[in-house]
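Narrative of accomplishments. A recurring question from our advisory board has been how the design workflow behaves on a single, concrete structure rather than in aggregate. To address it, we present the structure tokens for one chain from the evaluation set, followed by the sequence designed for it. No filtering or post-editing was applied between the two.
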């Protein structure tokens, strides 16, 4: 029996490519996910879909039978009809001027609007989901102000979710406005996610918690909150290991927020993490233009996951002696992310994670005088070469190099940089610079490595307010004190 499907009759081709919306009297391209003006159908078929002239005629014949209107005549959906299922939803901005309501996607465009339309008033706007039927010169956004809630608790305690469909337009071949993808302002399409993708209420709830709460704790500033809340989920829809990473960090965040349910949420988080890691390792072995953004993002979430995980509380940068790893897995992946992605780095820089990649290359300001002073203090902690506690020459060399890097890191905190010191700064200022030889000393729990790691814990204290790092610096220092012979305690920073 022939297993091949019968070809679609030519007269039905239009049903595969277009959807007719009689309510609005428009046709929407199912691939591009925007409406095509009646007079532009032939050009759209030719230029966008490369359909030959002879094959375009059935489409044009079908269009001629429809009651279509011109773009300027299309009615705007009412509150009950928004959002239109056939169109993607974007996170937009609405002008808060009472008699205005102008809609756009970027702060730059909104500020330009205020300068031209309301030059004598303070610029105010709010974030809203928006859609548009057409693109290009016909682009015009619309919204529905009464249905902007992301979720609310119903009387029976269940959650009512809105705008949580992770069936992202760009994953289906759509082409969102250029400024939307660049700014990370693509939001989900309407609510069919749990039905379309088999998501149970637990998963939908975790995604919602990540989008509305956890993501805000990861963002460095207001400028990239939308990136972590929306763009990350957009990318995760196409890469299951990243979606599992999102679910894991959201569950860990709930474990932190709900102490009585900590064990249950931690177990769930570990399950998601365990499922994600083999997929992530496979992706890093075969990076592509499609998965490179997810690899970079998962590397970041892996750090937070490790910081938060109960079994790592007292270790952090330490590796168990019996383990096969030379370095902690999170440190390995974050240190090697650039080399792993070098073959597709152009795609990273051209995509939505460009700003995130650049954060790892931002320069530090350093007080050079303070750097020399700290370096001298750290070097005096090493035993004299003629003492009974002397190290090998190789260890002295490794220690001196790592101490020099740590002095630079500590001096950065005395140069005014500490006010904006972030989690990523704390990692790239020293752990990212460590040599493999020094990390091997960490695995051996050699005094040379533990002394410097103890001083590094003072940097971690600067970001101790983060939920995923609370108490980690002190726990790490206590662990180091237990591991070291009391003779070395004088070289360690004080607790508290």
């Amino acid at each position: 029996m022939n297993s091949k499907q019968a070809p679609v009759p030519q007269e039905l081709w239009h049903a595969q490519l277009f959807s007719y919306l009689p309510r609005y009297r428009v046709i929407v391209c199912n691939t591009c996910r925007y409406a095509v003006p009646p007079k532009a159908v032939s050009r759209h078929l030719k230029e966008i879909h490369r359909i030959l002239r002879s094959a375009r005629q059935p489409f044009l014949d079908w269009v001629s039978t429809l009651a279509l209107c011109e773009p300027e005549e299309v009615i705007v959906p009412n509150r009950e009809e928004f959002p239109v299922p056939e169109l993607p939803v974007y996170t937009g901005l609405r002008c808060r001027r009472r008699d205005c309501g102008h809609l756009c996607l970027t702060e730059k465009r909104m500020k330009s609007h205020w300068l031209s339309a309301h030059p004598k008033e303070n610029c105010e706007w709010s974030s809203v989901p928006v859609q548009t039927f057409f693109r290009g010169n016909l682009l015009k956004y619309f919204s529905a102000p009464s249905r902007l809630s992301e979720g609310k608790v119903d009387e029976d305690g269940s959650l009512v979710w809105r705008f949580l469909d992770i069936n992202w337009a760009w994953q289906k071949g759509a082409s969102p406005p250029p400024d939307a993808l660049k700014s990370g302002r693509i939001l989900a399409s309407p609510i069919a996610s749990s039905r379309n993708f088999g998501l149970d209420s637990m998963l939908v709830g975790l995604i919602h918690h990540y989008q509305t709460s956890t993501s805000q704790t990861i963002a460095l500033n207001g400028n990239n909150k939308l990136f972590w809340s929306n763009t990350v989920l957009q990318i995760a829809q196409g890469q299951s290991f990243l979606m599992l990473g999102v679910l894991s960090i959201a569950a860990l965040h709930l474990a932190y927020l709900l102490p009585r349910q900590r064990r249950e949420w931690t177990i769930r988080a570990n399950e998601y993490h365990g499922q994600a890691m083999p997929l992530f390792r496979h992706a890093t072995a075969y990076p592509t233009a499609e998965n490179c953004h997810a690899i970079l993002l998962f590397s970041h979430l892996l750090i937070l996951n490790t910081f938060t995980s109960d079994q790592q509380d007292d270790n952090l940068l330490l590796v168990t002696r019996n383990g096969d790893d030379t370095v902690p897995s999170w440190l390995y992946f974050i240190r090697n992310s650039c080399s792993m992605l070098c073959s597709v780095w152009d795609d990273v820089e051209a995509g939505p994670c460009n700003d995130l990649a650049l954060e790892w290359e931002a320069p530090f300001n350093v007080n050079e005088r303070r750097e020399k002073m700290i370096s001298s203090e750290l070097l005096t902690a090493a035993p004299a070469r003629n003492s009974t506690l002397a190290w090998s020459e190789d260890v002295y060399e490794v220690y001196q190099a790592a101490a020099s890097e740590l002095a630079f890191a500590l001096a950065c905190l005395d140069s005014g940089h500490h006010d904006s010191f972030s989690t990523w700064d704390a990692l790239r200022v020293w752990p990212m610079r460590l040599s493999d030889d020094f990390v091997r000393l960490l695995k051996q729990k050699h005094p040379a490595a533990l002394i410097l790691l103890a001083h590094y814990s003072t940097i971690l204290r600067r970001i101790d307010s983060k939920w995923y790092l609370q108490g980690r610096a002190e726990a790490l220092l206590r662990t180091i004190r237990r591991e070291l012979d009391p003779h070395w305690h004088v070289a360690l920073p004080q607790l508290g």
